[in-house]
Design goal:
- The protein has helices at about 1-25, 90-105, 145-160, 180-195, 225-230, 255-260, 275-285, 310-315, 350-360; strands at about 30-35, 35-40, 40-45, 50, 55, 60-65, 110-115, 160-170, 200-205, 240-245, 265, 295-300, 320-325.
- It has one domain: TIM Barrel (Alpha-Beta Barrel).
- Helix 7 packs parallel to helix 8 (about 310-315).
- It is globular and about 55 Å long.
- With about 375 residues, the protein is of the alpha/beta class.
- Strand 4 (about 50) and strand 5 form a beta hairpin.
- A 6-stranded parallel sheet has the order 10-9-8-7-6-13.
- InterPro entries: GH (IPR017853).
Length: about 375
C-alpha cells in the first residue's frame, strides 16, 4: 500500500510539474505603457535616440509569416520544393527559422509577424489554390502547425523577442465552413496561447481586414468583434494584447482604433516616405485613438541606403516599422522572407540593407 501511495504521489507531482511548465514561468513579458512597448519591465531600446529621433519604446519588426507554413493540397505542394532536395519539408522550414532568430535579434529585431494562415508565397496573388491553415474547416487546431508554432514561440521567449501572431489571411479564410468556425478558431488559438503561459505574444486578428475576406466578421465593419473576443479571454488575470491591420496606405476605422491595444499600419503602395508621416498623423486623429503605439508590420519599400525612406520616415514619426520582403522576378533562393521555400538567413542585398539600418537605428 505504501509503495502504491508513493507511486501515486510521485505521479501527482509530475502532473503538477507538467502543468506548471504549461502555465509557464516564462522569461519574457510584453506590456504597453502609454505609446511605448516594455519588455520585462523595461522600455524597448531603453534610452536610445537616433539622429534626434526617440527609439525607446518602439518595436522594430519583420514580416516572417511563413514560419509554420505547409501546403495540404497535393496539387500545389510541388511549388515549394527546396532547390537542394527537390522536396518540401515543413519541419525543416520551421527549424531553419528558429536557428536564425538569434541572428535577427543581434541586429535589433525585437519582433516578427507570423501568421497561422501564412501569406502569399509569391508576395502577391490573385488566387490561392494552396491550403495553408493551422485550423480545420470547423475551427479546430491542427496539431502539427501548433507544434511548429510552439518551437518558434519558445525560442522567442528565451531570446526576449515579441512575436505578433496573426490568425487569418485572405484567400485562406474561405476554407472555414461558416462564421461560427472563425469564432471557434479564435477561441481555440487564444486558449492555446494562454494555456501555454506565453506572455511575450501580441495578436493580429487578421492581415489586411479590408482585403477580400469572405466572412463578414473578418471585414472592417465587424472585425472589432473578434478583437474584443480576444480581449475577453483571460487566464490567471492575464489577457493578450491585440489589434488587426488594414491594407497598404489605409487609415483604420474608428471601431478598430477604439478597441485595439496597438494600431497596425501597412506601407505597401506608399512610395513617398512623406506619406508615411501623413498616414501616421491621420491615424492619430481617428476618433477613439488614445495614444496607443503605432506599428507598421508590413512595408515593401526599401532604399535603405538613402537618408529618407519609409523606415526612417516611420521612425521620425515615432512609429515602429516592419520589413516585408518577397522573392521578386528572377531572384535567387536567398531573396525574400515571404517566398516559400524560405532562406531565413540574412543573405540577400535587400535583407543585408534592412538589418544594417536596423542595427544602426536601434544601437545593437
Amino acid at each position: 500500500m505504501r509503495t502504491q501511495l508513493t507511486y501515486i504521489l510521485a505521479l501527482f507531482c509530475i502532473c503538477l510539474s507538467i502543468n506548471s511548465m504549461a502555465q509557464g514561468k516564462r522569461k519574457t513579458q510584453v506590456e504597453i505603457r502609454g505609446n511605448q512597448f516594455f519588455i520585462n519591465g523595461q522600455p524597448t531600446y531603453a534610452g536610445r535616440f537616433w539622429k534626434g529621433n526617440k527609439i525607446e519604446g518602439l518595436l522594430m519588426n519583420s514580416r516572417m509569416v511563413q514560419g509554420v507554413f505547409d501546403d495540404l493540397n497535393p496539387e500545389t505542394v510541388h511549388n515549394w520544393e527546396y532547390p537542394d532536395t527537390k522536396t518540401w519539408d515543413a519541419d525543416r522550414n520551421t527549424n531553419e527559422f528558429v536557428s536564425q532568430m538569434p541572428n535577427w535579434k543581434a541586429h535589433g529585431l525585437l519582433s516578427f509577424t507570423i501568421n497561422l494562415q501564412g501569406g502569399s508565397p509569391f508576395g502577391y496573388s490573385q488566387s490561392q489554390p494552396w491550403i495553408n491553415s493551422a485550423f480545420t474547416e470547423q475551427g479546430d487546431l491542427r496539431d502539427d502547425y501548433f507544434l511548429r508554432l510552439e518551437k518558434i514561440l519558445d525560442r522567442a521567449d528565451e531570446l526576449g523577442m515579441v512575436p505578433i501572431v496573426g490568425f487569418f489571411y485572405f484567400g485562406q479564410d474561405e476554407r472555414f465552413v461558416d462564421e461560427k468556425a472563425v469564432i471557434l478558431a479564435v477561441e481555440n488559438a487564444v486558449d492555446w496561447i494562454l494555456n501555454k503561459g506565453y506572455s511575450n505574444v501580441l495578436i493580429e486578428v487578421n492581415n489586411e481586414c479590408n482585403v477580400r475576406y469572405d466572412h463578414e466578421i473578418l471585414q472592417p465593419e465587424r472585425v472589432h468583434e473578434l478583437i474584443n473576443l480576444v480581449k475577453s479571454k483571460e487566464k490567471n488575470g492575464r489577457r493578450l494584447l491585440v489589434s488587426t491591420s488594414y491594407g497598404g496606405g489605409a487609415v483604420p476605422k474608428e471601431n478598430v482604433v477604439k478597441y485595439s491595444d496597438f494600431i497596425l499600419l501597412h506601407g505597401n503602395g506608399v512610395k513617398d516616405p512623406n506619406n508615411i508621416t501623413a498616414q501616421v498623423e491621420a491615424t492619430r486623429k481617428v476618433p477613439g485613438y488614445t495614444d496607443q503605439p503605432i506599428v507598421y508590420n508590413e512595408d515593401d519599400h526599401f532604399n535603405f541606403d538613402q537618408d529618407l525612406n519609409n523606415f526612417t520616415a516611420a521612425t521620425a514619426a515615432y512609429a515602429s516599422w516592419g520589413f516585408f520582403d518577397y522573392r521578386m522576378k528572377d531572384e535567387g533562393f536567398e531573396s525574400g522572407y515571404q517566398s516559400v521555400p524560405v532562406d531565413w538567413g540574412i543573405n540577400s542585398d535587400r535583407k543585408k540593407g534592412f538589418f544594417k539600418l536596423l542595427k544602426e537605428i536601434t544601437g545593437f
